[in-house]
Structures are given as C-alpha cells and as structure tokens.
Amino acid sequence: MSSHKSSKRTQASFVLQWFVLILLFAECVSLQSATDLSPNNPFYVNQSFPKLTTPQWIGEEGVEAVIILAIDDLRTPEKFESYLRPILERLKKIDGRAPVSIYCNALQPDHLQFQTWLNEGLSLEVHTLSHPCPLLAKGNFQSAVNTVMGGIDLLNTIPGNRAVAYRMPCCDSINSPSPRFYSEIFPQISAQGNFMEIDSSVMCLFTSDDKELPRELVLDAAGKERYTKYVPFPSFTTTIKNYPYPYIINNVCWEFPALAPSDWEAQNLHGVNNEITVEDWKRALDIAVIKQGVFTWIFHPHGWIRNDQVNALIDYATETYGGRIKFLTFEEASDRLKDNLLDGQSLRNAGGNDAGIRLLDANGDGYLDVLLGHENERAMRIWQPSKQEYRTVESPLNVVTKSGETTGLKHGVFWANGPVAFLHRTENSEGAWVRSENGFEEKGSLISELRCGGKPVQTVLKGSGRWSDRSRCGWR
User: Is the pTM of the predicted complex or chain greater than 0.85?
Assistant: First the structure.
C-alpha cells in the first residue's frame, strides 16, 4: 500500500511538472480560462478570445463603442487640409472638437497647419519617413529601424504633438506587418528617447463564423461574406477575425486592429467612390457597436473615397447611436486606457520599458482583467460586467523588479475548472500562487516541482523570459 501511494505521488508530481513546463514553453497558452497575452505573434486573437470592451476602458458612462478615423500618407499638409476640412467641421458639430489621427511620412515640422490641427483636436502619428512597402524590403533591417525611429523623433519635434501610434505602410494591401517588427522594432526607444504605445496595422475581418451577429450584417444581398471579399489576394494573412478590441502584443504594444475594408481595399475590389463601400462601413459600425468594440478605420485623400462619403458615415453614426459612440484620436485612446483601465499606468514606463502590466481572464467570464505587477502597485483589477466597474484586490505578484527586470511570471490553469495559477523563479526569488475568491493563495508546491535534471528551472534568465535550460532537457 505504501509503495502504491508513493507511486501515485510520483505520477502526480510528474504530471504537475509537465503541466508547468507546457505553461513555460507555450508562446500563447490557453489552458481553460487563462491566457498568456504577451506573444510576439500579432495575430493571436480570435472571436473566442477574452474581450476588452469599450466600457472597460472608456471612462464615460453610456459609451459603448469608439470610432477612430485615421488617415494615411501625409507629406504635404495642404492636400490633407483641403480633403479633411469638411470632415473636421462636421466632427466639430458633435462636441466642438475634430478627433482625427493623421499618419505622417517625412514633413516640415514647423508648418503652421500642424498647430491649427492640434488646436482642433487632431493627432499626428507615425507612418515611417519613407513609406517602404514592405518595411523589411531587401533584408535591410537597419534601414527599417531608421525610417520608423526617424519618424517618431520628427513628429515629436512638432510643438504640442505627442506621437503614440504607428501604422505599417501598405498593411491593407500586402502582408507587410511582420512579426519581427513587433518583437524587434516596435519595442525600441529612439535616439531622442521617444517610443510608441499603439499600433494599428492588423486588419480585422467580420465573418459569418460569429453566430451572435445578425446574418444581414455579415452577409451581402447575395448571401456571400460581406467583408472577406475585400481581401486583396488569397494569401493575404495579416488579419484577425471578429475581434474589434484593443489587445496587447509583446507586453509593450497596444494593437488597435483596423476594420476591413480600407478605402484602398474597397477601390481595389469595385472601383473608387462606390456607395457599396459606404454601406459596408455602416454595417461594420453596427457590428462594432453590438460587440462594444472599436471601429478603427484606414482612409486616404487619394480619390478612393470622397470626403462627403466620409461625412455620410459620421452622420449615420451620430444619428443612429448618438451618445453610445465616441470619436477619439489614438492619443486620446492611449490616455483613456491609462486612466480608466491601467489605474494611471502605461504598458511602457517612463523609460519605454515593460511596466509590468498584464491582461488575462482571471475568472473565466470572457472579459479581460488587469494585473498590475510593478514597484508602484501590485494588484489585480477584476471587471464586473453586471456592475460595469472594476473590483480591485491586493496581489503578491511581481512582474518586473525594482530594477526593471522581468521575473518571467507565467500563468495558466492546471486542473479542469480550477483557479488561475501564477509562478516565477529567478536567480534571486521564486513563488507560486493560485487565484482565490478574495485574492491569492500561496502554492509553493507548483514551483518546487519545477525541476530538470534535479536542478531548479528558472522562468527567466538574464531578462529573456524563456526557460533557462531547455536544451539540456530535450527542448529546442
């Protein structure tokens, strides 16, 4: 009997160890209700992924969806002023401001038009200096870095402007949003100490796979998919489906997916200024409101869609939804996320590094919750949909140390219908906990069983966030 019990304990220890190892190695772990939200893969979300709805971060009662109008390719302000002026005046009739984000290439930062726009409520964002398509063309990585970082520094020399967002050139026409950009370029800090917080280069397609959506919104009059028809070629894969929410890439980047079609995709399919485009945008807005998401839009002043058609979309939004929708710039969206979701913090600290903030579905209700794990605050903010507010509980979890190094904190669910578990082990500290109803319960056995060749396995080594000894134990 004693031998039998010992054998069972050994088996249990073995199973537990392998569950922990799986958690450590997975780029995007989804064991039951918990999900690792930090992969470099920018396309990891889908319609079943836990959502971050607009009421969770907007900080304004009654607002259910956000619209971000983001126009691309600015070099000379005169062309954009002519095209945008009727749109800006229409927006100012809503609440006295003109929230449009302009993605910019090389420009003259002292042009007086920029001050007029900034005073009206616009924001000026990064579209690289030279607009390469694709960014990593010809394998010249340093050239790609220079045109991105140079754009950040140039736009931040414009008095009163704070560039926070990036859009990849040609993201709506070719597979230009490379995963390498998100892991090796976006996290960088420029020569002038500037960095970005938001990207909007991943295209979101609404499809009939989402059974909660009315069929007339996702299918056209012929009964065919309304939005996938805009994909410019069959191998266009830099997309996600049915997820119009902000999400995090690589712990330091907010992704605001742009909804298909852009005006380029629309003219590519059925010509310029086609009213079908406007109708499809209206239906996409309807879906974004139903899902309480963000309608993030790509358009241009190149004759692919008229400014009066843009105003027709604005009219539809305000007349149909009134105060249920809010127009924002990317700068305003960044501030709302910081103030209302992250308790005054940002994903990147003042030096541009990982601030120790993670999102996860801590209770399996389908909504993302917030883990604050840095020196200023250790807490978890649990979203309560019925009350439309957060409940904050104290947390023992440290995601980054006082010196700014990551602890490699991992999380997942080890038992069916069990609580979310967290663990970390560095050269200097270790710990393991499980979520309880009112906080966290220490569970040291989870980390003590994490050994390889009889030696402790670290969840991070020299800031890498990867298992420190995987090759010796047969992992590559």
Answer: yes
Task: Specify the CATH number of the domain 54-334.
Answer: 3.20.20.370
The whole-angstrom separation of Cα 178 and Cα 181 is 5
DSSP string, 424-451: EE-SS-EEEEEEETTEEEE-HHHHHT-E
| Residue-level pLDDT at 431 | 87
**Residue whose tokens read 């340093």:** 142
CA gap 425, 459 in Å, rounded: 5
Q: Which string of b and e fits 23-39 if b means at least 16 CB within 10 Å?
A: bbeeeebbbbbbbbbbb
Would you say 182 and 253 are in contact if contact means Cβ atoms under 8 Å apart? yes
- Which residue do the tokens 């109708």 mark? 279
Residue ranges per domain, the chain?
Answer: 21-43+348-473, 54-334
Query: Over the stretch 377-390, which tens digit does the pLDDT of each residue have?
Result: 899 999 999 999 99
Integer Cα distance of 427 and 453 in angstroms = 17
Please state, in angstroms and rounded to a whole number, the distance separating the CA atoms of residues 199 and 348: 14
Q: Distance between CA 210 and CA 5 in Å, rounded?
A: 48
Q: 257: which DSSP letter? A: P
